[in-house]
Amino acid sequence: MTEKGIRVTIACESCGHFVDLIPLTKGQHANISKIEGDFRIEEIDLDYDYSVDAVEEVTAEVKEMRIDCQKCNNYIVLNEFPSHVY
Questions:
Q1: Quick count: other Cβ atoms within 10 Å of Cβ 56?
Q2: Which one of 2, 11, 24, 46 is CB 3.0 to 4.6 Å from 18, fit for a cystine?
Q3: Element of type H or E holding 84
């Protein structure tokens, strides 16, 4: 029996185009480059949290990530990433 895991599906409701991100390696890692040709990560907006006094401690936080459908150019912007994931 095959162990079941988590699958992430990116689907365009406008044209029906979709791709599944399924872990293919140990550690449950799915390669985001698998979406190329179907979808495109158009933009990743980062916010930096740093202190002027402690420049060696810079923390980058993802603010937004835009994914575009290559078939019909519709898109989605993912935002409000929880701070506990950093």
A1: 6
A2: 11
A3: none
